[in-house]
Design goal:
It comes from endosymbiont of Lamellibrachia luymesi. The chain has 353 residues and is mostly helical. The chain has 2 domains: 140 residues, Rossmann fold; 177 residues, Hypothetical protein af1432, CATH 1.10.3210. The chain has 16 helices and 5 strands. Strands 2-1-3-4-5 form a 5-stranded parallel β-sheet, sandwiched between helices. Helix 2 links the parallel strand 1 and strand 2. Helix 8 crosses helix 12, helix 12 crosses helix 13 and helix 13 packs antiparallel against helix 14. The longest helix is centred in the middle third of the chain and has 56 residues. The two termini are 59 Å apart.
């Protein structure tokens, strides 16, 4: 609840080209216990003051030289103050057309000179009460919105932490490292931003990409951990990690989990249609899958594993460029080349332990 002292402490601006009128209004408010009253005879100065300060009420004359009250209200509305302080028009022009024009132009109330001081104070008090209540509600709504955003961010980070650790679980069954999944996430986010995806979508890909190989949980150890080359039958089983991952993640209404499901299913599809599990081609492959495909291959090539040495950055990029239009989306290859320096920084930041 707003108290009387809070209402009377409101910031008031009085605009009238007649100095005597200003003195009268100032005296009325001073005697009634309103300490924060500013006044000006210059309508242009009033617009400047309105830009610089946040008033709770404006008392405005209409008939002024250089800039009339209607134009002043027009300039006020351009400032988009939220909430917009109410305007109480005090004018000697009291015909119906002028009253309606003032009210339609932004005025909240209208008094014709000469006016009764008690009526001015009553109308001003009511307008200030509404203005301050609106300001209080706006502040509360803003505070609540920030709290909701913070809570939403906290929930997203919790979901992302769970997703990341599930990604680790898959890597611990393989010969890759947890850092691989983290790097793939960051490489994918960077590429998503580079091609113009929204910040929210890029963040979702960052957190979902580490789940790309979650389906390896369902691959038998004798195949997953086989030191030599897989035979044809074993390779067919290995390829099912994409569909296994999609099954693990299916059925969720959570956008992050659904994004992870798409990536798990699609990150081995190839631009020319020779990938798996569905043999999709070109733009049939969701953009998330195309992004993670290139990020995964780049990191897998440039990391050491028990059965291979790490490729050089140059060697990995040579292969990626050669596979443009075959394995990879050509537009993504171009974008990937553009962000190479940042990709190298990510590799250094999240180096294998």
């Amino acid at each position: 609840m707003i108290t009387e002292s809070e209402i009377k402490a409101g910031q008031i601006l009085v605009v009238d080209d007649e100095p005597l009128n200003l003195l009268v209004v100032e005296e009325i408010f001073e005697n009634a216990g309103y300490p924060n009253v500013q006044s000006t005879t210059d309508p242009k100065e009033a617009v400047t003051l309105f830009k610089q300060q946040r008033f709770d009420l404006v008392l405005l004359d209409l008939n002024m030289p250089g800039m009339d009250g209607f134009e002043v209200m027009s300039h006020f509305s351009e400032q988009n103050h939220e909430p917009q302080p109410p305007v109480l028009v005090l004018t000697a022009i009291g015909d119906r057309e002028t009253r309606l024009r003032a009210l339609r132009g932004g005025a909240k109330d209208f008094l014709v000179k000469p006016f009764d001081s008690e009526e001015v104070l009553s109308r001003a008090y009511n307008l200030l009460e509404v203005s301050l209540a609106h300001k209080l509600i706006t502040h509360y709504s803003s505070t609540l919105e920030r709290a909701v955003r913070a809570k939403t961010r906290e929930l997203l980070e919790t979901q992302a932490e769970i997703v990341k650790r599930l990604g680790y679980a898959a890597e611990f069954r393989d010969t890759e490292t947890g850092e691989h999944t983290v790097r793939v996430g960051h490489h994918s986010r960077l590429l998503a931003i580079q091609i113009g995806l929204s910040t929210d979508e890029a963040e979702r890909i960052l957190y979902a990409a580490p789940m790309h190989d979650i389906g390896k949980i369902g691959i038998p150890d004798k195949i997953l951990l086989k030191p030599g080359k897989l035979d044809a039958d074993e390779w067919e089983i290995m390829k099912t990690h994409t569909t296994i991952g999609a099954k693990i993640l299916r059925g969720s209404s959570n956008p992050l989990i659904e994004c992870a499901r798409t990536i798990a299913l699609m990150h081995h599809e190839k631009w020319d249609g020779s990938g798996y599990p569905k043999g999709l081609k070109g733009h049939q492959i969701p953009i998330k899958g195309r992004i993670v495909a290139i990020a995964d291959v780049f990191d897998a090539l440039t990391m050491s594993r028990p059965y291979k040495s790490a490729w050089t950055i140059e060697g990995a990029m040579k292969l990626i460029n050669e596979q443009s239009g075959i394995h990879f989306d050509p537009a993504l290859v171009t974008a990937f080349n553009t962000i190479l320096d940042q990709l190298i920084e990510i590799r250094e930041q999240y180096a294998d332990q």
